[in-house]
Amino acid sequence: MSLLILLSLAAFFTSSVTATLGIGGGVILLAIMAQLLPPSVLIPLHGAAQFLSNINRVWVQHRHINWAYIKPFTVGAILGTGVVTPVALWVPQGWGMVVLGIFILVATWRAQWLKLQAWHPAASGGITTGLSMVLGATGPLVMSVLPKQWQRMTVVGTHGMAMTIQHGLKLIAFSSLNVELWNHWDLLLGLTLATLAGNRVGARLLGHLPERHFKTALDWTLTLLALRLVWQGLALLDLQALDFHVGLEHQ
């Protein structure tokens, strides 16, 4: 089976997951793409795919976007990108992943400790976008700061708009990677068409998902993604420690 077909099927499935629950698809797609693409194009192509996926999701869910939240969120996101981009490569990724995973767990199950409901949208935009420049796993983080009292359609639509903004800013900020994405126009086209179809299927599933079941599924999806982040961060720290000790032995 060709790379184009494999990635298109993966994009269809993962965008359906994201359109139904609001999160999860981006992390799954990254894991799949990592098995099929070289590291030099993995992150830029995944970022472009997520940007296109969220544009499609916004198109499907545009009637449910809370623009009163998104406008100040965007201002904060731009400021967060500008502040963090110069130091983005200096933050240890392993520790960042562990801290992010713990934050998401607390925000999901003990949100009252963080008083997330009191965060101004501009602060949410600045903090989550700044962290996304370093950590990359933006979906669960943004979902954790959205107001819990919103209905599922508003949650998914507003989250999609927030992620479109963040991925767009990240593509601009990391354009210095000097990767010619248009050399992979066929993959981009396949990913775009597949995510468009997946978003429409997911939107239909979302419309038939009871509110109570949506909130339960969302909480546990966030939990599994957070635990995965902590596990990956600890594994990365162990690997870095091993490399450090090996380097000392060879000195």
Biggest sheet: strands, sense, closure?
Answer: none
Order of helices and strands: HHHHHHHHHHH
Give the number of helices.
Answer: 11
Principal-axis shape equals globular
For the record, give the distance between the C-alpha atoms at the N and C termini, rounded to a whole number: 47 Å
Oligomer: single chain
By DSSP, the count of extended strands is: 0
Membrane topology: Multi-pass membrane protein
Main location: membrane
InterPro entries: TM_pro_TauE-like (IPR002781), TSUP (IPR052017)
Subcellular location: Cell membrane
Structure description:
The protein has 11 helices and no strands. It is mostly helical. The protein has one domain. It is globular and about 50 Å long. The termini are far apart.
Topology readout:
Blueprint: H1 3-21, H2 25-34, H3 39-61, H4 67-84, H5 93-109, H6 111-114, H7 121-135, H8 138-145, H9 152-173, H10 185-207, H11 211-249
Top keywords for this entry?
251 residues, mainly alpha, 11 helices, 79% helix
